[in-house]
Structure formats: structure tokens, C-alpha cells
């Protein structure tokens, strides 16, 4: 592992397809970062196996082994800090991150959500979009803060909702866009092209100077 590389820590609970997209972009040179560690709250998460196949350290951290949610989150933070992680990426992580995450990684935690936030936060969003009758859905990369799915928006991609769509068919098309924009958003952070002004994320054409 290159000590000077921009290091990612990935939290995942399930299949890890967005994790795989990040790995693929790193390996083909389109994302200039490396994954320092993958952490999961589920022992049999496919994301862990995906990481191990690529030689990435992948750990199951059992939530039941801790007295409360803060203690569990503190252990995740301890591992991430020990790996000198620069950015925490949630990739299908099904738990709400809590302190001490925000004090430890201020504006350095991001997530991808399968809707055009602020519409349809939370779970089962594709079915909600279909039931509501929207003509367009999509996905959103956003910073993570104390408000669930409420952090400043970094990037979005639009997916039309077609007549006859089911939650499954819509989800599959949105997932394709997730795999495109999540690595792109990470690269913008690696390149120091983003700054937050109030709630708006401003994208610089050239890298911002470090203070």
C-alpha cells in the first residue's frame, strides 16, 4: 500500500456492487485512490468477499459485541483512523452512522442513495417513486451528516421511470448510474475540487488550494 495515496475506508452491508465499481475504477486507473479497509456489520456480506478477492483488508465488526451504538461506531472510527483513512464511503451500508463519526471525519463521509434527494429518503425508494407517479428518478452522491440522507449533494444522475416499471427494473437501471457517478464523485474529492458553501457543494474547474 502506498503511504502517500488517498485512502478510502468503505462501509458496506450487502452485495457490494458499488464497492466493486470503486475497485474497478481504481484498477483501471480512472480513480486515483486506494481502499485501505472494508468494514461490514454483517459477517456474510458479499462485499467482504469482493474486497478479499482483490487483496483488500475486509473486516466483520459485530454490532452485538458492543454495549451501545456509540461504542460500535467508536470502534469503526478507531479502525478507520488506524488505517489513516482520508474519506469514508458508505456503499450499501444499512446502519445510520453516528458520533464519533462526524467529529472524527468532518465533511469526509459520503454516501450514494438511489433517488434524487431530497425526494424519497430512507428505504424502498424505487417503489415509493413508482407509487408517487414521478416521471424521473435517479441517484445522489451526498455528504453524510446527522440528518439521514440529508447532507449536501455532490452529484446526481437522472433515470426515467418507464411505463410498466417495477421496483426491480427501476432499481437495476438506477444501479448502473450509481456505478458511474460514485467513483466520479470520489475522484473530485481526491482532486480537492469540492467545497461546501452553506448547503451547496461548489465544483471547482481546477483543484482548490489547501489552506
UniProtKB/TrEMBL annotation:
<dbReference type="GO" id="GO:0005737">
    <property type="term" value="C:cytoplasm"/>
</dbReference>
<dbReference type="InterPro" id="IPR001555">
    <property type="entry name" value="GART_AS"/>
</dbReference>
<comment type="pathway">
    <text>Purine metabolism; IMP biosynthesis via de novo pathway; N(2)-formyl-N(1)-(5-phospho-D-ribosyl)glycinamide from N(1)-(5-phospho-D-ribosyl)glycinamide (10-formyl THF route): step 1/1.</text>
</comment>
<dbReference type="InterPro" id="IPR004607">
    <property type="entry name" value="GART"/>
</dbReference>
<dbReference type="InterPro" id="IPR036477">
    <property type="entry name" value="Formyl_transf_N_sf"/>
</dbReference>
<dbReference type="InterPro" id="IPR002376">
    <property type="entry name" value="Formyl_transf_N"/>
</dbReference>
<keyword id="KW-0658">Purine biosynthesis</keyword>
<feature type="domain" description="Formyl transferase N-terminal">
    <location>
        <begin position="8"/>
        <end position="186"/>
    </location>
</feature>
<feature type="active site" description="Proton donor">
    <location>
        <position position="113"/>
    </location>
</feature>
<dbReference type="GO" id="GO:0004644">
    <property type="term" value="F:phosphoribosylglycinamide formyltransferase activity"/>
</dbReference>
<comment type="function">
    <text>Catalyzes the transfer of a formyl group from 10-formyltetrahydrofolate to 5-phospho-ribosyl-glycinamide (GAR), producing 5-phospho-ribosyl-N-formylglycinamide (FGAR) and tetrahydrofolate.</text>
</comment>
<protein>
    <recommendedName>
        <fullName>Phosphoribosylglycinamide formyltransferase</fullName>
        <ecNumber>2.1.2.2</ecNumber>
    </recommendedName>
</protein>
<comment type="similarity">
    <text>Belongs to the GART family.</text>
</comment>
<dbReference type="GO" id="GO:0006189">
    <property type="term" value="P:'de novo' IMP biosynthetic process"/>
</dbReference>
<keyword id="KW-0808">Transferase</keyword>
<dbReference type="Pfam" id="PF00551">
    <property type="entry name" value="Formyl_trans_N"/>
</dbReference>
<feature type="binding site">
    <location>
        <position position="111"/>
    </location>
    <ligand>
        <name>(6R)-10-formyltetrahydrofolate</name>
    </ligand>
</feature>
<feature type="site" description="Raises pKa of active site His">
    <location>
        <position position="149"/>
    </location>
</feature>
<feature type="binding site">
    <location>
        <begin position="94"/>
        <end position="97"/>
    </location>
    <ligand>
        <name>(6R)-10-formyltetrahydrofolate</name>
    </ligand>
</feature>
<feature type="binding site">
    <location>
        <begin position="16"/>
        <end position="18"/>
    </location>
    <ligand>
        <name>N(1)-(5-phospho-beta-D-ribosyl)glycinamide</name>
    </ligand>
</feature>
<feature type="binding site">
    <location>
        <position position="69"/>
    </location>
    <ligand>
        <name>(6R)-10-formyltetrahydrofolate</name>
    </ligand>
</feature>
Amino acid at each position: 500500500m502506498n503511504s502517500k495515496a488517498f485512502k478510502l475506508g468503505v462501509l458496506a452491508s450487502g452485495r457490494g456492487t458499488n464497492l466493486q465499481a470503486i475497485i474497478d475504477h481504481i484498477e483501471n486507473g480512472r480513480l486515483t485512490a486506494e481502499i485501505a479497509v472494508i468494514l461490514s456489520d454483517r459477517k456474510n456480506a458479499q462485499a467482504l468477499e469482493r474486497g478479499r478477492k482483490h487483496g483488500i483488508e475486509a473486516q466483520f465488526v459485530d454490532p452485538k459485541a458492543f454495549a451501545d451504538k456509540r461504542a460500535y461506531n467508536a470502534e469503526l472510527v478507531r479502525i478507520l483512523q488506524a488505517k489513516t483513512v482520508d474519506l469514508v464511503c458508505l456503499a450499501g451500508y444499512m446502519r445510520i452512522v453516528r458520533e464519533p463519526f462526524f467529529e472524527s471525519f468532518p465533511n469526509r463521509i459520503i454516501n450514494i442513495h438511489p433517488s434524487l434527494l431530497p425526494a424519497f429518503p430512507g428505504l424502498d425508494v424505487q417503489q415509493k417513486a413508482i407509487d408517487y407517479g414521478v416521471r424521473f428518478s435517479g441517484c445522489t452522491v451526498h455528504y453524510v451528516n446527522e440528518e439521514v440522507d440529508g447532507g449536501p449533494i455532490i452529484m446526481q444522475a437522472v433515470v426515467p421511470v418507464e411505463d410498466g416499471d417495477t421496483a426491480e427494473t427501476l432499481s437495476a437501471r438506477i444501479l448502473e448510474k450509481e456505478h458511474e457517478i460514485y467513483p466520479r464523485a470520489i475522484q473530485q474529492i481526491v482532486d480537492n475540487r469540492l467545497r461546501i458553501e452553506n448547503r451547496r457543494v461548489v465544483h471547482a474547474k481546477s483543484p482548490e488550494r489547501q489552506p
